[in-house]
Amino acid sequence: MKFDTVIIGSGLAGLASGIRLAEAGKSCAIVSSGQSSLYFSSGSMDFLARLPDGSEVTHPLHALSELTRQAPHHPYSRIGEKKVASLAYQAEKLIRDSGLVMTGSASQNHYRVTPVGRQRMTWLSPARVPVRELERPFKWESVVVIGIAGFLDFQPGIVASALQRQGVKASAQEIHLPFLDRLRDNPSEFRSVNIAHLLDLPQSLTLIAEEISRLAQGYEAVFLPACIGLETDQVVQALQIQVQKPVYLLPTLPPSLLGIREDQLLHTRFRHFGGVIMTGDTVNGVEMAENHITGLYTRNHGDIPLRASHVILATGSFFSNGLKAQFDRVYEPLLDLDLLAYSSREQWTRQNVFTPQPYLKFGVTTDEYLRPLKSGQVVKNLYAAGAVLGGYDPLFEGCGAGVSLLSALFVAEQIITGQRVTKQRIPEIAQ
Ligand SMILES: Cc1cc2nc3c(=O)[nH]c(=O)nc-3n(C[C@H](O)[C@H](O)[C@H](O)COP(=O)(O)OP(=O)(O)OC[C@H]3O[C@@H](n4cnc5c(N)ncnc54)[C@H](O)[C@@H]3O)c2cc1C
């Protein structure tokens, strides 16, 4: 099987690079072991919320030169300030064109309301998630936070108390919907996605709307756990019309309905342009000659190799097995690529769990075109994108989705144009 590009991994990075390549007419396959971190995410996408020295970033594009000074190995520093700015707008377009309805822009962060009612700075948020613009008060003076009786992955009381501390009149309520009793009997099944399957049924709408309308009297807006509208937002739109108040969704503990919806829309977009996804398959062998990848072997295809002119490694970090750790070493399992990582185990973590953890910055090391190194040599037709890259801390710096999207578009552009994109934007011919 021969493709122009094979992408290993179908997280945000794999899908974004695949969409860009397929849209440009490249034959493209994604091999995907399983669910990506989107299934566990808040649904909001971070670009850059904090510099490594801890200072807050409100306008990400203005902070890039300071980021380069503080973190020269950060993927944004590798890509270069000007290029990051143009890729940010490309990423926003890709998100929009894929049908994700998000608020926000890379020119200015905003705050999203978290599952415990606090505020966290971010770049793009699903339009259904309550947000606050910088230096502006909340849009609502009063909010009712409504949980679902027996659903432990969302606690309206905690959210309401946190909102009250931020000056919002908030009350916590619960709805009891008898048609959920079947799930309620088994706590391991009483999870967001299973609940959504029942709430999304047309016959459930009036019942839910009646309960919510009763509890929402005297409040301006309704906050619900994201357990409704799995396939489409139309269900929430219909609810909002019946309730006659704005209805917002807060992320719950995983699985994340907001993240799953994003994953589905990105998959659809990739397939729309003719992309092939090998779901449930795993790349488990790589054939190389003279620093070139000549074939990829997968669990389902046995000894039939996938051949490609270019390969993108988008396998994620430890969470997705893109990196692995043994007692005394951290390694990249497919090609044993060179890593940005501490060799001594004592340096991997800090005892205080509330401080940034060094292992979160571990990842593959690359040249300035995001081509990984193996034993100090560039693998010529391989690029790395997303959380497998080293040099940044997605949690502390609040830059996870941004790095995944921008690195994906950066490598896709080089493959499409056949030219290396340099920081000064003077193209070199790709080898
Ligand atoms: C639990 C969690 C929650 C997060 N929440 C947020 C958030 O709310 N906002 C935010 O901005 N960032 C968040 N992040 C940061 C996140 O890393 C990025 O936002 C981004 O989604 C990562 O995408 P990725 O494609 O690089 O990697 P991943 O999403 O990890 O995807 C990697 C994919 O590669 C596949 N894979 C791995 N090895 C192989 C193989 N050998 N063969 C085939 N497939 C393979 C995996 O199965 C997986 O599907 C979160 C991270 C985690 C771990």
UniProtKB/TrEMBL annotation:
Give cofactor(s), names only. FMN
- Kindly indicate whether the keyword Oxidoreductase belongs to this entry: yes
Sequence ranges assigned to domain FAD-dependent oxidoreductase 2 FAD-binding in this UniProt record = 4-403
Identify the metabolic or biological route this protein is part of: Polyol metabolism; glycerol degradation via glycerol kinase pathway; glycerone phosphate from sn-glycerol 3-phosphate (anaerobic route): step 1/1
Provide the GO MF annotations for this entry: glycerol-3-phosphate dehydrogenase (quinone) activity
Answer yes or no on keyword Oxidoreductase. Answer: yes
SUPFAM superfamilies according to UniProt: FAD/NAD(P)-binding domain
InterPro entries in alphabetical order? FAD-dep_OxRdtase_2_FAD-bd (IPR003953), FAD/NAD-bd_sf (IPR036188), G3P_DH_GlpB_su (IPR009158)
The chemistry this enzyme catalyses reads: a quinone + sn-glycerol 3-phosphate = dihydroxyacetone phosphate + a quinol
Gene3D superfamilies, sorted: FAD/NAD(P)-binding domain
* Entry keyword set: Flavoprotein, FMN, Oxidoreductase
EC number(s) per entry: 1.1.5.3
The organism's place on the tree of life at top rank = Bacteria
What is one term from the GO cellular component aspect held by the record?
glycerol-3-phosphate dehydrogenase (FAD) complex
UniProt record, GO biological process: glycerol catabolic process
Q: How does it assemble?
A: Composed of a catalytic GlpA/B dimer and of membrane bound GlpC.
Q: Which family does it belong to?
A: Belongs to the carotenoid/retinoid oxidoreductase family.
Q: What does this protein do?
A: Conversion of glycerol 3-phosphate to dihydroxyacetone. Uses fumarate or nitrate as electron acceptor.
Q: Which NCBIfam families match?
A: glycerol3P_GlpB, PRK05329.1-1, PRK05329.1-2, PRK05329.1-3, PRK05329.1-4
Protein name according to UniProt = Anaerobic glycerol-3-phosphate dehydrogenase subunit B
What is the organism of origin for this protein? Xenorhabdus stockiae
Lineage, opening ranks: Bacteria, Pseudomonadati, Pseudomonadota, Gammaproteobacteria, Enterobacterales
